Amino acid sequence: MSRYRCWLKRYIKPKWGKRLLSEVRPRFVEAWLKGLDLAPKSKAHLKSLMRILFNCAMRWELMPVGENPMRLVRVKDSSKWLREPVTLTVEEFRKVIQHIAEPYKTMCIVAACLGLRISEVLGLQWGDFDWQRGQVKIQRSWVEGQVGATKTENSRAWMPVDAILAELLLEHRSRNEAWAHGNPWVFASPRTGKPSHPWSASRTWLWPAGVKAGVGRIGWHTFRHSYSTLLNEQGADLKVQQSLLRHADIRTTMNIYTKAVPERLRQANSKVVSILLPEKKAA
């Protein structure tokens, strides 16, 4: 729901909020989508949300029941990336984080070592961690200043936390203990007490860091793509990769059907952490 609110607030309401339903015609919507500076996949998400809104309008009898007009809207190349996703080599990752200050440096490390989406990184609370068993439960996201569900039901899962990463997180908590005592959020802002805004951090730290490291502009999702690439390079089988990335459909990773053993997930994850952070020693 929080993701829908974001699209509604930022794009749909400013353009169509004061229009009559009869004025929201397919050719106008198609032209509007074409003019937006968004990736084709994002435009497809907007089209889907417009279709949902028209279904609701028919259900609530605000318009005659019939074929949803948004079905006629075309979005070119909606299944294609606007540009190839950026992935970082181990050396590039190390160069990038040298140019990022705390707490964003630790946020990048968590994203890279667990393959989390930035909304899931920001949604982490200290109570989600089981330090004794070395694991964390991914169970919420933080989007547009609101707590929300994870992207899919499959995204709600226990993830292994390598001892090296656990040590870094506990160091992060210790650094912020003076002002954040009792705050449940792992990456709370000292100004608001709530999770930081990811886009301002991207502009202030990630983009410049990528340029300084010689890899160009990067985003938070770069770390998830890099994690996936490293898992593959380290020989993790496809079912393990799917489980660690928490893909709902294995076709997102590749088409194979086996049962992943939790210990194998931990071993695959630890390989990635150890090569990203070789100078760290687990306690």
Description:
It is a single chain. This protein is mostly helical and 283 residues long. The chain has two domains: 2-72, no CATH class; 90-276, Intergrase catalytic core (hpI Integrase, Chain A, Orthogonal Bundle), CATH 1.10.443. Helix content is 49%, strand content 6%. It contains twelve helices and five strands. The protein has helices spanning 2-16, 26-35, 40-59, 90-98, 104-114, 118-122, 163-175, 177-180, 198-212, 221-233, 238-245, 262-276; strands at residues 129-130, 135-138, 141-143, 146-148, 157-160. The strands form two sheets. The chain has a three-stranded antiparallel β-sheet. Strands 3-4 form a two-stranded antiparallel sheet. Strand 3 (141-143) and strand 4 form a beta hairpin. The radius of gyration is 21 Å and the shape is elongated.
State the main characteristics.
single chain, 283 residues, mainly alpha, hpI Integrase, Chain A, 12 helices
